[in-house]
């Protein structure tokens, strides 16, 4: 049995029809690969189509404002991907005259492009013989060869990359790389893999040893941090509200949010109302506050869980630069806030 030939034959019979598989255009391949990092195809596909419609070329993406890019990205999470995407587009358009780097080595110089993305674009667009290694590939290789080295360890990364390179079909790396990833997504699934109909089942070591559920091995994550957010949903007699843009290197950089008071631990309604930060944000004026949700909304990220309360704040005027409530929908916001806006009908709110 030739591993690569079996996978390619399976792929040609079972592959999903996806728009980026109908082209070798590096712009479209790159865009799809960035979008699908840590994202299911079913979730990412509508975003890809919207991006291609809004930015049919790298020049169109480069000309866009960051806020427009973030707004189209809203809901996909991991917003650094969108910011890096935009920066790389500007570099390709302005410095490379719209011509994408033509090799794995050069592609890695683009912001936000690592080993996996560079290998995917180089192999699919230019047929460069370099192997991709993503979560699907780790799963297929660890099970077939019974490799229990942790996939997120330094030694594991090296071992699996070397194995993937060894198995790569050097004559047709584009098809092979897509085949092994698709095989991991559809056949050798994380849960309930289709082992009975698998074309590799007679030689799969994990299946022989009843270790399918044990592989791949991954080192435990670091402790998840808990954070406590209190958002002030301010509305004035002029039907204006406040949004502030997040800056710095923390989560949601570049996105907008309501004025935020973060506390070290959960606070009672009474304690929160005495927060000095309230006066700093809204100044000395008459105002009334009402807690929207007694039970916090929990927003789970990979490295932190955010416990959020929203507070309605009725004020005579808004501090800073207020915006009409109906314009809130035009700003890119974290999905946590987007859900609140949709659920409350804030855009149509009137005092």
Automatic annotation (TrEMBL):
Family in the record: Belongs to the Nth/MutY family.
Superkingdom in the source lineage: Bacteria
Annotated Pfam families: HHH, HhH-GPD, NUDIX_4
EC number, as in UniProt: 3.2.2.31
Limits of the HhH-GPD domain: 35-186
Role this protein plays: Adenine glycosylase active on G-A mispairs. MutY also corrects error-prone DNA synthesis past GO lesions which are due to the oxidatively damaged form of guanine: 7,8-dihydro-8-oxoguanine (8-oxo-dGTP).
Protein's name in the database: Adenine DNA glycosylase
Entry's cofactor comment: Binds 1 [4Fe-4S] cluster.
């Amino acid at each position: 049995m030739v591993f690569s030939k079996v996978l390619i034959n399976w792929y040609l019979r079972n592959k999903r029809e996806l728009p980026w598989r109908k082209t070798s255009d590096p712009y479209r391949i790159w865009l799809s690969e960035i979008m699908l990092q840590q994202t299911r195809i079913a979730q990412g596909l509508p975003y890809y189509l919207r991006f291609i419609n809004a930015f049919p070329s790298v020049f169109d993406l480069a000309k866009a404002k960051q806020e427009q890019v973030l707004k189209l990205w809203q809901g996909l999470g991991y917003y650094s991907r969108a910011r890096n995407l935009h920066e790389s587009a500007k570099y390709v358009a302005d410095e490379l005259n719209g011509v994408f780097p033509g090799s794995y080595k050069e592609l890695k110089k683009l912001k936000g492009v690592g080993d996996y993305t560079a290998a995917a674009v180089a192999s699919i667009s230019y047929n460069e013989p370099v192997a991709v290694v993503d979560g699907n590939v780790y799963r297929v290789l660890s099970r077939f060869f019974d490799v229990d080295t942790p996939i997120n360890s330094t030694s594991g990364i090296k071992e699996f990359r070397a194995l993937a390179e060894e198995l790569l079909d050097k004559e047709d790396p584009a098809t092979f790389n897509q085949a092994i990833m698709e095989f991991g997504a559809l056949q050798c699934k994380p849960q309930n893999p289709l082992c009975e109909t698998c074309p590799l089942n007679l030689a799969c070591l994990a299946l022989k040893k009843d270790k399918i559920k044990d592989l791949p091995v991954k080192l435990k994550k670091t402790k998840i941090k808990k954070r406590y957010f209190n958002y002030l949903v301010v509305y004035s007699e002029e039907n204006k509200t406040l949004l502030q843009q997040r800056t710095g290197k923390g989560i949601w950089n570049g996105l907008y949010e309501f004025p935020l008071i973060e506390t070290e631990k959960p606070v009672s309604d009474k304690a929160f109302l005495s927060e000095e930060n309230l006066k700093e944000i809204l100044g000395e004026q008459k105002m009334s506050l009402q807690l929207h949700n007694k039970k916090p909304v929990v927003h789970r990220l990979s490295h932190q869980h955010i416990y959020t309360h929203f507070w309605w704040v009725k004020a005579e005027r808004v501090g800073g630069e207020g915006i009409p409530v109906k314009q809130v929908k035009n700003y890119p916001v974290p999905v946590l806030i987007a859900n609140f806006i949709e659920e409350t009908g804030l855009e149509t709110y009137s005092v």
